[in-house]
Write a structure and sequence with these properties.
This protein is mainly alpha-helical and 144 residues long. Helices cover 73% and strands 0% of the residues. It has helices at 3-35, 37-41, 51-69, 75-98, 110-115, 119-130, 135-140.
Length: 144
């Protein structure tokens, strides 16, 4: 492989690897919402109704978004759906930091709870990036 070929395929390979990693993470965390909803419900702000139902719904969309990232025909829609989900759950993350709600079995310093918040922006950027098809991705799936 020539260096120009390697350079052009590296971003695509990185995007594919990141896509699979994000998809796996979203599916795992989504399943966790079903398996153990209580810790997630604990961070839902009090002004929102039915915290357990909201946790189940968000878990469903996390799994759906993760699976969708792996399906070329719906990848872009899945990435945009995940962006909407990250925005929708942001109040719960803020609530967790404001009220120092600790993850089950852990005690994190308040600074760590606040430091989590900017990661939502990173997740949004990652979802948008992995939701794009590069030239190599289109060729992998028989699209021009």
């Amino acid at each position: 492989m020539r260096s120009t070929e390697r350079a052009s395929s590296t971003p695509s390979a990185a995007r594919r690897a990141s896509r699979v990693a994000l998809a796996a993470f979203m599916m795992a965390i989504g399943v966790a919402h079903f398996a153990a909803p209580a810790p997630f419900a604990a961070i839902v702000p009090r002004w929102l109704p039915a915290p357990v139902l909201l946790v189940i719904v968000s878990g469903f969309f996390e799994v759906l978004g993760g699976v969708g990232l792996l399906v070329p025909r719906v990848r872009r829609a899945a990435s945009l759906g995940l962006v909407a989900l990250y925005v929708a759950v942001f109040p719960a993350n803020v609530n967790m930091a404001l009220h120092q709600i600790q993850p089950e079995g852990l005690h994190l310093p308040p600074a760590v709870l606040w430091a989590r918040l900017p990661f939502q922006v990173a997740f949004i950027a990652l979802a948008l990036w992995v939701g794009r098809d590069g030239k190599d991705d289109r060729e992998d799936y028989g699209r021009p």
